[in-house]
Amino acid sequence: MGVSRAEYCVIACAEAWRDNGEVLASPMGPIPSLGARLARLTFSPDLLLTDGEALLVDADGGLEGWLPYRRHLTMVTGGRRHVMMGASQLDRHGNQNISCIGPWEQPARQLLGVRGAPSNTLNNPVSYWIPRHSPRVFVERVDMVCGVGYDRAAAAGPSATRFHRIPRVVSDLGVFDFDTPDRSMRLVSLHPGVTVARVREATGFELTAGADTPFTRPPTATELRLIREILDPDGVRDRHVGAA
Fold first, then answer.
1. Could you tell me the CA-to-CA distances from 80 to 14, 71, 190, 227 in Å, in that order?
2. Tens digit of pLDDT for each residue in 54-68?
3. Carries keyword Transferase (predicted)?
4. Quick check: pTM over 0.90?
5. Domain of 17?
6. Distance of CA 133 to the CA centre of its chain
7. Which of 3, 2, 21 is closest to 12 using CA atoms?
8. Chain segment 83-135, per-residue pLDDT in tens
9. Which one of 52, 85, 169, 226 has the minimum C-beta count within 10 Å?
């Protein structure tokens, strides 16, 4: 059985936490959660995982310790958490929208609301997971800024940039970062079966991409066994990522 697109996405999400050390991983959604747990079991053993309420857990969900909200907030405001959020819209500089589609005065769609996106992005690293890469998500300009991108953080000054960082964006087509002179989005790797032309067609802004963009690394035999037999034996991952 070959490696599925979903499994490449899990690996790409896991890599977001590589070399993070003892930080709190806050993955939002099944694919990022699988990635964080896989990272903990393999190359990032110091990673802290939470049940989302008040407990620290291991990769299998077993209890490791107590994390009261006041301690959680201390980690959040000191850069010692790495969140992986979703986005209804994401622009070239990493500004994220999860609040509404259309003008603020009369939006066409009401979404989740701003939630914790501003404080997340200004206080600790935030990556993004996009399960359906399309021009509706990757837009030239978000309708409302919830998560703060590089351009707006820079405009706000040192108080906003101290802990602000967007390590990576993972979609069902590839992996992206902002390691460019103007801090705009760059294609880092393609998932196997995807071309640069397809990514450009699915992106609503000019994307930095080289002619020799590599493919996302495949899982090792150990990682694949962990994904399939330990972390997700029921195949939930395939219900959240389309086939290649």
1. 17, 11, 29, 26
2. 778 888 878 888 877
3. yes
4. yes
5. 5-239
6. 13
7. 3
8. 999 999 999 999 999 999 998 888 898 888 888 898 889 989 999 999 999 99
9. 52
